[in-house]
Amino acid sequence: MKERPTDAPLPPLRDAIAEKAKVSPAAVDLVLSEIGVGEERPTRRADTLAIRRLAFSGVKRATKYKDGPYQFTWSDLGPGLFGILSPDANQIGKSTVLDVMVWALRGRPRSLKPEVRAWIDEVELEFTIGGERYCVSFTDLDGVAQGKLVLQAPGPARTLQTFKGEDHFEQVMGDLMMERFALQPIPNVSHTGEEASQFMHAWTAYVASMFIEGSHPAILGDVTTGALWWRMLQLFMGMPYAATHMALRNAVTLEQAQAEGASVARGAQARYGAEIKHLEGETRRLKDLLKQEAGIAISAREMDELSTQNAILLREASDLQVRIAELEIAASALRTQRDEARATQRRLKEGAASRKVFAGLDPVCCPRCASAFEEARSLAEEAEGRCAVCDRSTLNDDAEALEEALEAARERVEELMVAEKAAQSRLDEARKELSSVVKSRTAVAVKVREAETQASAIRRRRELEDEALRVAGALDQMKILARKGVPEHSAERLVILKAAEQIAEARMKAASAHVMSKLGDEMVLIAQRFGFKGLESVTVRGNGIQVSISGVPSYYSKQTPGQRLRLRIALVIAMMRMAHDTGFGHHPGLLLIDSPGSEELSELDLLAMVSEINQMAEETPNLQMFVASARGNLLQSAFHKDNLILPKDAGTMF
Questions:
Q1: pLDDT confidence of residue 126
Q2: pLDDT digits 0-9 by tens, 362-418
């Protein structure tokens, strides 16, 4: 079916698809509703974005400049060209200013260095979208962004969303921006093995297309695969049927991948069934072999158990021998103490007996030298009760103390005898236990020696047991895979999707041919003003951008870094100029350019290009651009002085 001329009314999309696919409109409605596609709606004008104020603060640490607390504020911003310039100096914070803008706009840093991020504690960005003014503010303590999105005007300020963490922050900003700029998520298909799944490019990818850092291989954004730049361009331009075609093309790709996966799965199911039968046969064979080996040798498991038991008994015997030695030392010490206690008891008994003998004597002379005692000494003994020999008191007899000492000695002997008996009992039990362990270990050692004589048979049995375990594991895995089944696939669904994609593509091309031609013409005029000498034409297609230079055809990818930079900037400005002229378009109108002077541009070419960019910004009221460059001495004259920020006295931007 050929699409009708663009000047004739187009039939409803569902009817055109039903006619082409030879199915009922109801079947088309069902498929389209499943992928979220409906009749094309007129493109509405999307408002533009303008940053109005940026502020961030924190504490700088370990820099070669001045460290300590800082506060950066840039206010009174709006459409036009703004410069972040330094006099031939890098690493002073120019790119950081742009990176913080991107961070606040999309909820996730782009290329902010970790050590620089650690300096930033608070960020606040005020921006407008059409007639509405917003403020996103957040803290970034310990690497966790937490804050809120506030609608400041019109009406009283109110908090729209709060967030914590980069994922939530990114979601909050994405929800706002995608809705306000009427942008569609861009679908893509990811293949993992035999499975295919769909994922979406959203606001993060769109923001990347508004940041130009050098001459990237992609003319729009920073992704070169999947024709993402082309899809973003179509949606930025508001091409009729662009979003519909993207969704349908992605659905076809996904459906085809799933159909291929179903075919592969059916083949796999057949292979799984055959493999299960083979493994079940192997299981039976191995069981039979193990039964035959059972009468020849002990199993590998039994051999392992004997070896383990032998090691345990050996360790127990060693522990018992140590324990017996300790008990023998303790028993010997108790015997020595008991002998000493008995000797003390014996000496006390002998002293008591001697005392009884000598207490009845009436000495008249020294027992050593036989010298006679004076009569006065004998009289003193009688009168005062003191011994004539040792002068000891004979009146206060210590018989009671002696008896107490004898009783204590007797009790000590009895205690030591009980302790000695208990120690000997423990020693006997340990020796008996050791004898039992040695006997058991001897029996186990005999079994081990017997088993070792059958080493060849044991190895064979072990190999069979290992093989049986491997086969059992493989069989279980095959059964799990077989239970997954084959995913359902509808041939009619794929027919409907292919027909819908072809119709949407034809309608998109018919509607966009003139627009893309106009875009190419605008890019030529702008790039020429930027100093792209000899550029005659630009043709923008999904398979690349073709250029004609001095009559010679070429491609974007073949250009020098400086020429690619000019084309990248020209593309965004051309889109904004066309949106201003036609009243339609979805690009936010924001462009951030970092270090344009690094792309092999001479000083004269760079100054001329930035001067023309400034002129373009003045001619295009819905465009806001920021340029960061270390060639400030050269470029200051290209900016309005009120639109510049320069290094502070400390030599840095903040």
A1: 97
A2: 666 776 676 776 766 666 665 655 565 666 655 445 667 777 777 887 888 888 888
Q: How far is CA 41 from CA 13, 226, 251, 514, in A?
A: 11, 26, 20, 19
Inter-residue contact 203 to 182 (CB < 8 Å): no
Q: How far apart are the first and last CA of the chain?
A: 64
**What is the rounded CA–CA span in Å between residue 295 and residue 285?**
17
The string of pLDDT tens digits covering residues 563-597 is 988 898 999 899 888 888 877 788 999 999 998 87
β-bridge pairing 68-74 and 49-60: antiparallel
CA distance 93 to 483: 59
Instruction: Please name the helix (run of DSSP H) or strand (run of DSSP E) that holds residue 459, with its range, or none.
Output: helix 455-483
Q: Which residue has the higher pLDDT, 349 or 28?
A: 28
- Please write down the long-range contacts of 16-20, taking CB distance under 8 Å and 24 or more positions apart: 16/503, 17/496, 17/499, 17/500, 17/503, 20/499, 20/502, 20/503
Beta-carbon neighbour count of residue 301 at 10 Å? 11
Cβ–Cβ under 8 Å, residues 628 and 593: yes
Q: Extract the tokens encoding 49.
A: 């974005």
Q: Are strands 544-549 and 552-555 parallel, antiparallel or unpaired?
A: antiparallel
Query: What pLDDT sits at residue 380?
Result: 65
Is the pLDDT score of 476 beyond 60?
yes
Report the C-alpha gap between 252 and 239 in whole angstroms.
21
| Residue predicted with more confidence, 581 or 1 | 581
DSSP state letters, 188-224: EEEEETTEEEEEEE-HHHHHHTTEE-S--SSSSSS--
pLDDT above 90: residue 293:
no
Place of tokens 């792209």: 532
Kind of pairing, strands 590-594 and 552-555? unpaired
Quick one: tokens of 31? 């498929």
Which pair of tokens denotes residue 32? 């389209």
80 CB-side CA count, 13 A: 13
